[in-house]
Design a protein that fits this description.
heterodimer, A: 626 residues, ABC transporter involved in vitamin B12 uptake, BtuC, two-stranded antiparallel ribbon, B: 222 residues, alpha/beta, Rossmann fold, six-stranded mixed β-sheet, 8 helices, binds adenosine-5'-triphosphate, binds magnesium ion
Chain lengths: 626, 222
């Protein structure tokens, strides 16, 4: 009993920093409607800046707190600058471009941090004066943890007062509700948005700086925290600060209990293995019971309307068909034309990602289902093939067949939950499911090899040389892309689009929109799984990275780059993105920085993707109607 | 009387659709001028265009001798133009007190600022509902709040879009009374209205709008 109380207190302490970061994200989302992937990066910056400043001044309590204060203000300033330079230009773009741009910022911050602080972890120190421990119920309990436990409700109170009891708070809430009206009352609401972004960033920085004495500043903390923070924000209800607190406490308690009872096992699964998975399960359960989180409010339809523009899917004209046929011909002739091993490998990779991106486009463009976690099905396919090859000792041909089955099983199961939601909550749930599959691959070491993954998954003899493997991949990918096309123009595709553009109308004429979406989700999963299966034989190995958040975002980037609304778009997007990334990686160690800058630049310059820009240009050409 | 607002050659668009073609109008200091016309004739759009809320271009759009066509909406408001939209866009989640406080701006020159008491004597209902959330008020009460809110910015020109729309007859009378007292205070008003009975005796002049054009109609054509 005593140790349970101590465990609960430890859980509360770790909830604090999680709450600080989550409150910042929820405030930013509530006001600007931007899902800020870079929030984890701001948290990481808070930790790194604090670690440097504490090393300089931190000998005494005064110096330590000064260091924290300066670090936190610095992160707030960085957030404000991000808003002014990047997000401010994107408020009118489709939401997905905002998200993509913030992911570009994630990449930039990663490399900048690496350049400034180097690859080693930096360990923090306890603040002087709070470094002792109390004897509590016979256990030593750190004073610093007690400080954290008390801090979170204090910050909650301060934020509540700020938003509900000050004129600035009223201005923020007014700007959230109706920015145009506020502007016509003479308020320059752009600065309010900047201030809100800076405040949210500051809270992320505070979370980072205060987490430091309990751990280290390291380069993976941005992605580690962002997944948990998304969970907390979604479970609490997006935009609700109190909800974020409750959810942070809930999530942290569950996690602490799992860690503290690590050796306990249920049905042969130890609690340790459940730790990461557990919080995503909490999220899935909460969202199914309360689709808007604990304290959230139903999403009002955005002014921009649909998350995906409803445009007519045109059948390709004769010239486009000719171009495609020519393209396929050239692709088939590549090895004969004397393409080297490296370029064949690159083209193989492009084909794999073209299929992956096309499957996501199918789901988003036709189904209107936004997925932040499509890599889950890619990864399931990859692991399915790798496990069939390694554990069941099946040959490549059969292992490739196993890939779509595991992906389909995952997509069927997760899809059932996902199609019950819409908008940002749906997207977040897909992300949570991707994180679940990631955690399972990461923590089920016995089967999946954990962090190292599965190695030595090579193609059969006949497909071992790069040209044969290229032909194999090309054939499978072309066949799958052709199938996806058929689905798009089949009655199923039309029903899907009807459900996307007008769910109520579609229901009224007898279309079961949920069922159609579920089918689409599963189909998209199947094709992503095929791509994953090919991927593992191309690489010869697989690790959990294949279904981590960056992989899902890569797919989004490919689709958005090429255009959500055309079937050929994602293929081009995948080719450009894959080629570009390969080029950058071979060019410099700081390829993330360049890629990030490129992504941000593209989002700002072409707020409707390259395909959209092409359409707009075509509309201006003489002799063609828009 | 000097001219407070002067507009010539005003055009406005929603997306690619042009809605205003060549609107010209003038409001002199202290006048109450009405835009009359059938549904969809462009009354609301004219007010929005003056406020900078739609894409527009104008040969001339001067407020108190200053060109305002190039300014952002918040700058136009700060010049002294107050806008009351037709669809009662109160901030639903804010209380009456907060709705009034976000709109508060100091008066220009050395004019006397609107005080809360002044607003309460104009709209007594608002005093009773001071701590009520705007989303929980009736349509008429919300309409009073939007006007009071705009007055908190101490405008010199008030753009009022259909102040009587959708209100019960008693409330319409109160509204008319309130605008009359604003007129007596010396406030200049440009309002859009479809209800001739409401405008009768209240306005000095009117323009008749028709398919995106404004024709001066003088006093008699109400
Ligand atoms: N948001 C909008 N988008 C596109 N067109 C619009 C929009 N608002 C108005 N219109 C069009 O612009 C024209 C003028 O509309 P406006 O609202 O200015 O008319 P009005 O005179 O105020 O009408 P009412 O008396 O009904 O309020 C109409 O043809 C209308 O259909
Ligand atoms: Mg109107």
């Amino acid at each position: 009993m005593d140790s349970l109380i101590i465990q609960l207190l430890t859980g509360l302490a770790s909830a604090s920093s999680l709450f600080l970061v989550a409150s910042g994200l929820t405030i930013i989302f509530g006001v600007t409607r931007v899902v800020n992937f870079a929030h984890g990066s701001l948290y990481m910056l808070g930790a790194y800046i604090a670690v440097s400043l504490v090393a300089l001044w931190g000998g005494q309590a005064g110096g330590f707190w000064l260091a924290v204060l300066v670090a936190v203000l610095a992160v707030g300033l960085i957030g404000g600058l991000l808003e002014i330079t990047i997000l401010r230009r994107l408020y009118r773009s489709p939401e997905l471009f905002q998200l993509l741009a913030t992911f570009g910022v994630v990449l930039i911050v990663q490399d900048v941090t690496l350049a400034i602080w180097g690859p080693q972890d930096r360990f923090g120190v306890r603040p002087p004066g709070l470094d002792g421990a109390y004897l509590l119920l016979g256990h030593r309990f750190p004073v610093y943890d007690l400080f954290l436990i008390l801090l979170a409700p204090l910050v909650l109170l301060v934020l509540w007062t700020l938003f509900n009891r000050t004129r600035w708070g009223a201005l923020v809430r007014a700007a959230t509700e109706d920015p145009e009206m506020l502007a016509s009352l003479g308020v320059n609401q752009r600065w309010i948005l900047t201030a809100v972004f800076a405040l949210g960033s500051l809270l992320a920085g505070l979370g980072g700086a205060l987490e430091l004495p309990k751990g280290s500043a390291n380069l993976s903390m941005d992605m580690q925290i962002i997944a948990s923070v998304f969970v907390v924000v979604v479970v609490g209800g997006m935009g609700s600060i109190l909800g974020a607190y409750l959810a942070a406490v809930l999530v942290s308690l569950i996690r602490t209990l799992a860690v503290a009872n690590a050796e306990l096992s249920v049905l042969g699964i130890t609690m340790w293995q459940l730790e990461l998975v557990s919080i995503f399960i909490v999220m899935a359960v909460v969202l199914v019971v309360r689709p808007w989180g604990l304290l959230g409010r139903p999403e009002r339809l955005h002014k921009g309307g649909l998350p995906v523009e409803a445009t007519v899917l045109r059948r390709p004209g004769l010239w486009l068909k000719a171009v495609m046929a020519l393209g396929i011909l050239i692709l088939c002739l590549l090895p004969i034309l004397g393409a080297g091993n490296y370029s064949l490998y690159l083209f193989t990779e492009m084909a794999v990602f073209a299929l992956f991106a096309a499957s996501l486009q199918f789901l988003m463009g036709l189904g209107g289902v936004i997925s932040f976690g499509h890599a889950a099905y890619f990864g399931l396919g990859a692991y399915g093939a790798a496990l069939a090859f390694k554990a069941l000792a099946l040959p490549m041909e059969l292992a490739l067949l196993a890939a779509p089955f595991l992906a389909a099983a995952g997509a069927l199961f997760f899809g059932w939950f996902c199609v019950r939601l819409s908008g940002v909550y749906l997207a977040m749930l897909t992300l949570a499911f991707a994180q679940i599959t990631w955690s399972i691959a990461f923590q089920w070491e016995g089967l999946t090899g954990g962090d190292n993954g599965l190695l030595g998954v090579w193609p059969s003899e006949w497909a071992a040389d790069s040209a044969s493997f290229y032909y194999l991949v090309l054939a499978i990918c072309l066949a799958c892309l052709f199938l996806l096309r058929r689905f798009a123009y089949a009655p199923f595709g039309y029903a899907l689009r009807a459900g996307r553009d007008s769910p109520l109308g579609a229901e009224a004429i007898g279309i079961d929109v949920r069922l159609q979406r579920w089918l689409a989700f599963t189909l998209a999963g199947v094709f992503a799984g095929v791509a994953g299966g090919l991927f593992v034989f191309m690489k010869g190995s697989i690790s959990p990275d294949a279904m981590a958040i960056p992989q899902s975002v890569d797919a989004l980037a490919m689709v958005l780059l090429g255009g959500v609304q055309s079937l050929t778009g994602p293929i081009l997007g995948a080719a450009i993105f894959t080629g570009l990334k390969a080029e950058l990686v071979s060019l410099t160690n700081y390829w993330r920085l360049l890629l990030g800058l490129l992504i941000v630049g593209l989002c700002i310059l072409f707020p409707r993707g390259l395909a959209g820009a092409g359409r707009e240009m075509a509309a201006w050409l003489p002799g063609r109607r828009p | 009387m000097t001219s407070l607002l002067e507009v010539q050659g005003l055009k406005a668009w929603y997306g690619r659709a042009q809605v205003l073609f060549d609107v010209a109008l003038e409001v002199k200091t202290g006048e109450v001028v009405a835009l009359l016309g059938p549904n969809g004739s462009g009354k609301s759009t004219t007010l929005k265009a003056i406020m900078g809320l739609v894409t527009r271009s104008a040969e001339r759009m001067q407020f108190d001798g200053q060109e305002i066509a190039g300014l952002a909406e918040y700058q136009i408001a700060r010049q002294g133009i107050g806008y009351v939209p037709e669809d009662r866009r109160v901030f639903q989640g804010l209380t009456v007190r907060e709705n009034l406080s976000v709109a508060q701006r100091p008066p220009q020159n050395d004019r006397v600022a609107w005080s809360l008491d002044g607003l309460f004597s104009l709209f007594p209902k608002l005093e009773q509902l001071y701590e009520r959330r705007a989303g929980e008020m009736s349509g008429g009460e919300q309409q009073m709040l939007t006007i009071a809110r705009t007055l908190m910015g101490n405008p010199r020109l008030l753009l009022l879009d259909e102040p009587s729309e959708g209100l019960a007859p008693v409330v319409v009378q109160q509204m008319r009374q309130a605008i009359l007292s604003l007129k007596q205070e010396g406030l200049t008003v440009l309002l859009s209205e479809q209800n001739p009975a409401f405008a009768e005796g209240l306005i000095d002049r009117s323009y008749r709008m028709d398919r995106g054009r404004a024709l001066a109609a003088g006093k008699s054509a109400v």
